[in-house]
Design brief:
95 residues, mainly alpha, 5 helices
């Protein structure tokens, strides 16, 4: 499962921040994204899901969410605070 091509970045984020085991993290991410655990490593399926949810894709095109925009969506979808998103909100005066 590799990074942004599939869902590896989301799974590792859950493992590191919530001390989840690999299987637990995969199940959590799959549930939040509305896909099966097997779909998490399918490059084609995850490209569609990531594009639909606006959580960043490997080769962004005009209008695709990138950078902070994608991180905001990831934070929202996974229900998790991301430090850079929280700092951005603080500095922008957003609650």
């Amino acid at each position: 499962m590799g990074g942004i091509r599939t869902a590896g970045d989301l799974v590792i984020r859950m493992q590191l921040t919530h001390k989840m085991k690999l299987d637990e993290a995969k199940k959590y991410v799959a549930e939040k994204l509305g896909v099966s655990v097997m779909d998490l490593c399918d490059v084609v399926k995850m490209a569609e899901v990531r594009e639909d949810l606006g959580i960043g894709i490997q080769e962004p095109f005009n209008g695709a969410n990138i950078g902070m925009e994608a991180k905001f969506r990831i934070s929202e979808i996974l229900g998790q605070k991301i430090n850079s998103v929280e700092r951005f909100k603080e500095r922008a005066g957003v609650k």
